[in-house]
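[Q] Does anyone have a clean structure-token version of this?
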Amino acid sequence: MSVTVSSPDLMTRTASLYDRVKSVIPSIEWPAFAEDIDAILRLKRERDAVILAHNYQTPEIFHCVADIVGDSLALAREAAKTDAAMIVLAGVHFMAETAKLLNPEKRVLIPDLRAGCSLAESITAADVRLLRERYPGVPIVTYVNTSAVVKAESDICCTSGNAKKIVESLGVPKVIMLPDEYLAQNIARETGVEIITWAGHCEVHERFSAKDVQQLRAGHPGVVVLAHPECPPDVVAVADFAGSTAAMIDYVAERQPSRVVLMTECSMSDNVAVQHPKVEFIRPCNLCPHMKRISLSKIRRSLETLTHEVTIDPAVAPPARRAVERMLAI
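[A] Here you go.
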């Protein structure tokens, strides 16, 4: 049974955590977060649980309760290594499925079942089977931003961080790359491999345009523009750098630009800004409505009630797991 504590005690216990995020969370907002954070930290110990949080989660989740943070590739790798009995995925449903594929014996929870993904919803297993019939013998590379049933119909998975490496590792002149059309087009420009695409798009990244970049440069002289490869090719073409969320974080850490804009989801800038206070972040704000379904209160409720547990059809899990494990082996 939880014990109710006085507000001063709670503020004292969580003071060091607030110090991490005070540059991006106003002090007036912290009391609204502190109680849930305190409870989550206790529940994690009681449940032998770890929280995996994607780079698009808000700072109070990313910096204050998460045990492992990163992009899709990092979360997949770390999910395969954890010794905890339970995983809570602060991200979207396909990420929780990937964690479950790599940890079939562990309980995997997602705080909100509605936390989906426009890319994952853009393609079905039946679509993949039809593509295989249309292009016999052509390997199918599937972005991890897909459901387990789609992964199960694929040959190998990739992330935005390793897509070029995965495509080239197959040693073939032609591949099918699903479902993000822009990611596939951007990778095609970097390789000599012919890539057959699918017309799926990320609802966050597809809204950026080359005109946005032009306006940012005009309004903020000297700004360095970093773009996610899910952005349209014309955005990537005029950016100073394009890469996964992990690659963008590394760029800022290594080069320390005086002024930077990250052409990706809003919370990413807040999370990186916490670690690089001398860098000025210009924020063109495109929110992911699915990521934002995850909140501290929902994470707390998930740990309290052990909901919502992620399960995968036993007939689907083995082939889907093989596609992910083939990626991780490269």
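[Q] Thanks! Anything notable?
[A] Residues 1-6 have pLDDT under 50 and may be disordered.
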